[in-house]
Amino acid sequence: MAVSFEAASDAPFEALWHIEQRAHPYPWSESLLRSCMSAPYWGEVITNPTTQGFYLFQQVLDEVTLMNLCVDPDAQGQGLGRALLSRALEKASAAGAAHCFLEVRASNAAAISLYQKLGFAEDGRRKGYYPTRDGREDAVLMSRTLPPPRPAEATQ
Ligand SMILES: CC(C)(COP(=O)(O)OP(=O)(O)OC[C@H]1O[C@@H](n2cnc3c(N)ncnc32)[C@H](O)[C@@H]1OP(=O)(O)O)[C@@H](O)C(=O)NCCC(=O)NCCS
């Protein structure tokens, strides 16, 4: 797969906004997505050959929180989510992060499976945290440690 990555803040915002609305059953507002385009937020888009997904972190010192990870529905199931998250974790490590945290809807089996495959473990749950169409659902809290960057990455 010949994919490439670009800083989310350098990519056309409309491409991210388009994917956000298509990929998530409960998408962010446009203003929330825009607010994550500058520090302390950062991330990248994945291109193959058009923009097909993105991730966004919030970084505070040596901790990153995965705020968003999504792949356009037309491009899902082809390894792009795994490629994006692998890249995200490498970049976080290179940026000095030692711990990565995230929260995910308990019903989101695809994302939870991906997170488990890339080393995340459940830390706990926030009961009824997320609204749904007909009630509430739990947030699953997950985290993993990050290895120190490889020497070539530390200078990127
Ligand atoms: C979660 C998401 C990013 C995965 O992207 P993807 O490109 O489809 O994922 P990949 O093809 O790289 O698959 C990676 C792993 O994800 C899991 N996965 C993907 N689709 C799945 C599905 N329909 N059911 C169960 N697991 C699934 C599997 O563990 C898969 O590993 P495998 O290839 O060994 O089976 C994508 O489904 C998505 O954008 N969902 C909507 C947004 C979202 O929920 N984001 C996460 C919360 S913020």
* Rg computed from alpha carbons, rounded to a whole number of angstroms: 15 Å
Secondary-structure element series: EHHEEEHEHEEH
Oligomer: single chain
Classify the fold: give the CATH topology.
Aminopeptidase
In the CATH scheme, the class would be Alpha Beta
Counting DSSP H or I runs of 4 or more residues, the number of helices is 5
CATH superfamily: Gcn5-related N-acetyltransferase (GNAT)
Strand content: 35-45%
Sheet/helix structural class: alpha+beta
Task: Give the termini separation.
Answer: 23 Å
The strand count comes to 7
Spatial shape:
globular
Integer count of domains: 1
The chain-level mean pLDDT equals 95
Could you describe the largest sheet, including whether it forms a barrel?
Answer: 7 strands, mixed
Poorly predicted tracts of residues: none
Concise summary:
The protein is α+β, with helices and mostly antiparallel strands. The chain contains five helices and seven strands; from the N terminus they run βααβββαβαββα.
What this model shows, in words?
The protein is of the alpha+beta class and 156 residues long. The protein has one domain: Gcn5-related N-acetyltransferase (GNAT) (Aminopeptidase, 3-Layer(aba) Sandwich), CATH 3.40.630. The chain contains five helices and seven strands. A seven-stranded mixed β-sheet has the order 1-2-3-4-5-7-6, sandwiched between helices. 27% of the residues are buried. The mean pLDDT is 95.
